[in-house]
Amino acid sequence: MFTHAHILNRSLRLCAVASAVASAVASAVVAVMCLSACRQGKEVRTIHVGDSLESRHITPDLDAMRRLEGIWLDGETDEVLLQVRGDSIFYPDTTSLPARFIIYDDTLLIFGASDLRYPIRRQSDYAFDYVNVQGDEMHLRRSESPDDSLLFVHRRYAPIILDRLVKRDTVVFTPSGQRLHLYIDVNPTSRKVFRTAYNDNGMQVQQVYYDNIIHISVYDGRKKLFSRDIDKRQFAELIPSGFLDGAILSNMEWGKTDTKRTTFRATLCEPEGAKCYVVDLHVSLDGQLSTELAEY
Fold first, then answer.
1. Domains plus CATH for the chain?
2. Which of 39, 96, 228, 279 has the fewest CB within 10 Å, making it most exposed?
3. pTM score, two decimals?
4. Tens digits of per-residue pLDDT, 6-53?
């Protein structure tokens, strides 16, 4: 015999099962719709616009993208600017990373650290005109010389090294006459720092630099007072992460020596940029390290 409560509980369970089945069917329908959209050349992408997020449906113009394939020259100087293969743009120098792109609604969208749109003014098989980020209209023409393709054959990207191996050997004296021997070694590492730049035709490009690691040592005669590798991550509590991630530990110099400590001065800068942080590293005569922000 079933009570009313039993029947009610069983009905609720059946409703829950039916709801789950309906949800699964709805998800399957959505998946089929998404698959169908992809097969029709449609793409759903979240585009970063400044500090906001804009979600929208983008339908790439595949014919326009195919028409852009090839090597393109500056319409005025005949300088080789770029090569388009598939959905990627390649540059003739070895310091700029390839970039993904799409064309939609007469707009060239290049994906990078920030996604930038370039309005297209004219596109044909032999001409491509667009407006760059400075608002200038750029005129490109298709290359007809087979020799231009040699600029893109077996090109390997080479990250930029701003400061190669640097060694400094300095002798200093404390006010009491104690003689200290200081060593500074600046060495490039394999850690990469990315920088957004703009080439001569106003297109955003991504460049990669190698960061440095710097070894500092302090000796009193043959007695080692301090010896350590320094990298920029040790300054995370002093420098904002937004700057630190894109900065290079570019230099280290001796600052001063007093009765209690020797001070080294580290410089962290944006690659090719003017913004820098300066950090003082204080090494006490008993081998203890402390850091403080000197200037920005």
1. 62-152 (2.40.128.280), 166-295 (2.40.128.510)
2. 39
3. 0.59
4. 434 444 344 444 444 344 333 333 333 333 333 344 444 444 434 434
